[in-house]
Amino acid sequence: MEDTFFTSKQAAQITGCTLRQLQYWREKNVVVPVISETGTGRSIYYSISNLVELSAMSYWLGAGLNFDIASDTLRALKEKEPELFKSGKGSRWMLHWNVQKEKLCFEKFDREKAIASLDKGQIVIPVWLDLVYQGLKQKLGN
């Protein structure tokens, strides 16, 4: 499935992102598609991995994260679990409120820690790209 590429319009339709979001995220180097300089102009194509990145950004922004936290989370996840973006296989992660650091922290999913944080009324946001990947596969019919 990784050898398939999509235009900006197709990527926007598949992921639910706007074309303006795709452009902005490309300009900020958050989601970097393949850009071909051949032909009469620049052609931009998104891979399946890019679609996973776009869907993740859209999910986190929809969950209320600001752009900086969402893009930092995406970068950290690409560094720690690159296989998630290629095959949907890898660890599950979470963002949770760390009282001592007074900020959202990114770490591997720990059910007990997540439940304890929720019991204290603290924020826990799942980062389960395997589910995002599976959803994309279903949308694409694979």
Automatic annotation (TrEMBL):
It holds the Pfam family MerR_1. Gene3D superfamilies: 1.10.1660.10. It comes from the Bacteria. GO terms for biological process: regulation of DNA-templated transcription. One of its GO terms (molecular function) is DNA binding. Residues 6-76 form the HTH merR-type domain. This is MerR family transcriptional regulator.
